[in-house]
């Protein structure tokens, strides 16, 4: 748990037996080279370790970290199944850096293709989108992934460095989880101390929290006209809550008695 989020890309491809053997040999040679480089690194001055770590971080994105080989035919004949193999390259698409404490959960937006939400023990919830979607130029031509390898926080909610409810110890542990509602316009966060937190997307025209626009199709709720560039303005809204210790005093609102106030230890 290093407070980072890694997005992995699964790319299927086909390889003949000859190409497969050559590819495996190349991978083995590469691992051997990395091992020898690591042995040399231990003999170097410790002052160079920071620069090496930065280089490793840059090389991490897009690098093949895992490959899955499996035959394309169910035939028991070895010659038939060995003629070609399906290969799935698992590469690191992006490294998301923004949280200061371990990440506890991640969830994709229910309707937007390139929007990821993460909750962390640093008492914040971040919404991430590819940098290419947040710049005026938009996506690069031919880029269908929307990522380009660089994802940035679009918005942040929560209470970084503050209190989110519950005992002092549990409050410092931050959020256990965070979820979107089916429309993707509301967020609920769950703290370790049992506290719940709601945020609603503001209307772009007047800055108010509006009604959720939706349509019913096959009993599913679908958000309307929701885009990545509109997901940056969330406001905290009232939610289910309560005291975590004994109540010491209660009093009605003095002028009209429209609400009840309570104090707790």
Automatic annotation (TrEMBL):
What InterPro entries does the record point to?
Elp2, WD40/YVTN_repeat-like_dom_sf, WD40_repeat_dom_sf, WD40_rpt
Organism of origin: Attheya septentrionalis
| WD repeat residue numbers | 96-128
Q: Which family does it belong to?
A: Belongs to the WD repeat ELP2 family.
What SMART domains does UniProt report for this protein, alphabetically? WD40
Look up the record and give one Gene Ontology term from the biological process aspect: tRNA wobble uridine modification
Alphabetized SUPFAM superfamilies for the sequence: WD40 repeat-like
Entry's PROSITE patterns? WD_REPEATS_2 (PS50082), WD_REPEATS_REGION (PS50294)
Record's protein name: Elongator complex protein 2
Q: Which domain of life is it from?
A: Eukaryota
Q: In which pathway does it act?
A: tRNA modification; 5-methoxycarbonylmethyl-2-thiouridine-tRNA biosynthesis
One GO cellular component, as annotated: nucleus
Where does the record say this protein resides?
A: Cytoplasm; Nucleus
Broad class of the protein's primary localization: cytoplasm
Q: What keywords tag this UniProt record?
A: Cytoplasm, Nucleus, Repeat, tRNA processing, WD repeat
Q: Pfam families from the xrefs?
A: WD40
Keyword match Cytoplasm: yes
Q: Which Gene3D superfamilies match?
A: YVTN repeat-like/Quinoprotein amine dehydrogenase (2.130.10.10)
